[in-house]
Amino acid sequence: MSRRDFLGLAALSVPVLAGVAACSSSKPSGGAGTGNASGGGGSTGTATYWFLSGQPQQGIREDSVKAFNAASSKGKISYTEFQNDAYKTKIKTAIGAGQAPTIIWGWGGGGLKSYVQANQVEDLTSWFDQNPDVKSRLFPSSFGAATISGKIYAMPSEAVQPIILYYNKKVLDKVGVQPPQSWGDILDMVPKINAKGIAPFSLGGQSRWTNMMWLEFLFDRIGGPEVFQAVFDGEKDAWSNPASIQGLTECQKLIKANGFIKGFQSITADSNADQALLYTGKAAMMLHGSWTYGNMKSSGGDFVTGGHLGWMNFPPVDGGKGDPSDTVGNPGQYLSISSKAPDAQKQLALDYFKNGVLADAEVKEWIKTGSVPIVKSASSQLSSAGDDTPFLKFIYDTSSQAKVFAQSWDQALSPTQAEVLLDNIAKLFALSISPQQYASNMNAVIGK
Amino acid sequence: MTSVAPPILQSAPPPTASRGRRQRSLSWLALPALAFFVLFGLVPLVGVLLLSFTTWDGIGTIHPSGLTSWREVLSNPGLPHALQVTFLIMALSWLFQTPMSILLGVFLAGRQRYRGFLSVFLFIPLLLSSAAIAITYKALLDPNFGLGAGLHLDFLSQDWLGQPNLAVATVVFVVSWQFIPFHTLIYQGAVRQIPESMYEAAQIDGAGRVRQFFSITLPQLKYTIITSSTLMVVGSVTFFDIIFVLTQGGPADATTNLALLMYKLGFQANLMGPASAIAVIIVLLGLALALLLRRLGGRDTTASQLEGA
User: Fold this and answer.
1) For the residues A113-132, what does the mean pLDDT come to?
2) Which of A76, A91, A82, A110 is nearest to A5 (CA)?
3) Interface contacts A/B by beta carbons within 8 Å
4) pLDDT tens per residue, range A202-229
5) What is the rounded distance in angstroms from the CA atom of residue B44 to the CA atom of residue A261?
6) Which residues in chain B are contacts of A282 at CB distance < 8 A?
7) Residue B249 confidence (pLDDT) above 90
8) Nearest by CB: A92 against B59, B159, B162
9) Are B309 and B197 in contact (CB under 8 A)?
10) Considering the domain B84-265 in this protein, what is its CATH number?
11) Is there a contact between A266 and B252 if contact means CB atoms under 8 Å apart?
């Protein structure tokens, strides 16, 4: 239990000295550049792989598989793409029905744990022991959410994705305010921005986990990481902690002050409408994952390239106990192997983990789209990323210097708890329940 | 969703030889339909009933657990709320759809050429998938990028799906927009069945259009109203797709009906036992409502409506 502790994700101890880069011998074949093999087909056995759609990440995932297929002599991997919210349901149903793909793309944490408890995914601990190179080239912190009861059940992949506070510089200038340095600043700014007919914060509230990001930061900044850790550890009445009640109250204060865009409860994050509100200047700021940068750059005209997008870590709350360097988000993505897959497919998947996942070409692509891939050698490449360098350095520093990098709540908790959590967060944001009701509703499902 | 009634099989020995021969051949004809009904109607139903007495996360093994799931569901504060939402949407969509469908049906039953032309347009929603309709409406109703914002019409830029009451009303409207054409079609057919002679007689007696509608058309449509209402009411117990795409049950839980609650418990919270219990409740509710509406139709459904025609 202690290893998968979400605090175990703490301290992304990435060696800053890239010269000592452990990225040694592991990698010749996969990075053979732009393979053109199609995603499907293959004569010597085909492994299946499901992952999320949505550019630019979708294209990188496709390219990674295509490059592997082009270089692989043993067999091919065919992939299928799904939208975020649809995928979360689809993958669970498929695993339960024994129809899982060979490679299961996921977020680690509580969801992975439910697969492990049902014996649906392979234990990769001994494979990592036999292939130390594969393990040592990745951020050590990325293994936290892949580890259940001391055993590794998933291959960390892709990029580290902290949640950050974005702002539209043009809008803040127009209003005449500076980016907030504290929670008090945020509450002070709200009426000024509203007075200009602009929404202070964009929010895709129908997706629910978008609202959750606000609570994650408020809880941390007010009471430190221990507050949610107590929930995670299943302590009785953990949600009634005074810091928790204060966080919930502060959040409702912001909602009541019209801090969020009109109609936020009917906006979904899947449609990227929340990002559009920020780059079209209808909203001044947005709390969102680092993965939104790529889309804002490609869809927002000159918003990103013209230097109008600003970013920062969530500011401290006055008098709060949390360390302002703390952050939350996804410490990586996670690839597991279905235990129901035939051995040949499992072998092919392991081959892909070793030679395909985060091959040099894929690492370059992640950096190109404004993400920090979880390989140690990435740090040396960030400064050559052109106009994305400042953002990438920020993400790298935020992730590596965070005292605590917490996993998103809905991913860390069991699916049963996560659903009640999201349901109650939606009610909290609709102001239909009070912080105390929220706490008692949530206390009822602790440990489930 | 429509429910299918099983064919009635009589096992009592036939009184005479000739009737017996005919009955045997009829039962044989019902077999294919019966097989489909058992396979796709009864077997899943029994499966769900059995699942409701188990604990299952949808991934691992299924453990029998007696009444645990039922206790969990019946004490879930979301259940009374979901029931309330279900009945509210049912009532509102019936109240909205029935008068609209009857009026449109009567109008389109006329044989003027322009009415045939209009009816083609009216029936377009029937051809579209629910998901496509919901996605389109969601885009049109977006408070910041939707129709209202695009055309700068303030009365259109309401927070249609973000305010609890407005969201319910919007859901009812979109559902009705999709299904009114279907019910209109039923009424159109029924109105055309009414004998012309009744209207001629009424005209001779000096009845006007409105009087004819209330004294002849409506009474003659009695059984059609019951049929159409049954489809609406029983169908609204299982409304899912449009609501899920439009609001996902939100804001908060303002549009979470039984079907959405079942989905959330089963597929998002991994509680298949309680979700199955809700599925059983949905089935029972649907059956009870269908029976009730049949009763409303009166005992003797074969009685003639054409007295004096």
Assistant:
1) 89
2) A110
3) 111
4) 999 998 999 999 999 999 999 998 999 8
5) 44
6) 144
7) no
8) B59
9) yes
10) 1.10.3720.10
11) no
